Amino acid sequence: MRVRTGMVGFTAAAVAFTVLTGPAQALDQGPGQGQGRAQGQAQEQGSGKRSHTQQALDELVRAGAVGVVARSEKQGAVWKGTAGVADRTTGKPRKANEHFRIGSITKTFVATVLLQLEAEGRLSLDDTVERHLPGLIRDGGNDGRKITVRQLLNHSSGLPEYLRNQTFYDRYINLPGFLENRYTQHSPADLVRTGMALGQDFAPGTRFSYSNTGYIVAGMIVEKVTGNRYEDEIRERIAEPLKLRGTGSPGTATGIPRPSARGYGVGPDGTLHDLTELSPTVAWSAGDMISTTADLNRFFGALLGGKVLPKKQLNAMKTTLPDPNGFIEGYGLGLYTTTTKCGTKLWGHAGGIMGWGADAVTTEDGRHTLAASANGGADGFEPVVDAEYCGTKKR
Fold it and tell me: Which domains does the chain have, with CATH numbers?
């Protein structure tokens, strides 16, 4: 089963590992979106035109997405496709090389850094949170002495999802509250306290339940162990070695580097809002990063291809827990697995943040990658993934 995107934030708190833009509604046509709104452009390098993948992009736009962009790479052949618009006001089309917010795909980068630190002997996956962050988790029945790094990364910590805190959600995530508070700065510790105020979900290690709170704590451990900002560790350990020139954490910057599209969401009254500008501190190490389709393909291809982690750590990353809600087949350490309708097993992560949805997947050998982004209105990339790997746009 594919992960759906379009309902919840960098989160997956209530529905899946996805996006938050308010109620999931189709977007009415507006400026720059009349006839031909769904007509995309595909660019091919190498052999094998992926017309089915382009048709799937076009279909997402017809179904309500403002714009989508995708890139796949297989055996040296690169395919790039777009559909819809980047800006509803000007009608400017989306471009294949745009930057976009990747939401929860950030978690794969964070988990990778922690696994590299384990390979270096600087921490163990079985270390408790208390060992690295003494006194942080001691509220609402939550106890850092009983939660391990591994449990943070595979969402079995029992730490409650901070986006499930209704007061926080309505003020900073949901529309219209987001519009009034979009530039508010949040500290990681405050986000953790917001989650712990809900009590404990379950005893650590007893089951799987997606929690952004756990990945905020994971980012804090990266910083405590290294003495550096988590974004600096990602840049030095992953982005620079792999030459991911369009990838990084924005820190407190509220915009997106150019070229980029605008991010959109629909309010409860059906009004379309531009959600592009926001304080990424609302997500931090659970979902604040920005990237490109080319960079995501390179990262996931290298990761699953064994070029980023030693074999032991990659195997640990791919050791999964089942999702009782059935949104995915299994979640490992910042990585999930799923199977297409034609039986192709894929590894990757989906993500989103207000105004944006993204997905990045690859075959188990890292040789056939796909990354996609939607700037509002898309309710899942399943048709695009199935079109790419199965040769049909319908599930």
Answer: 41-390 (3.40.710.10)
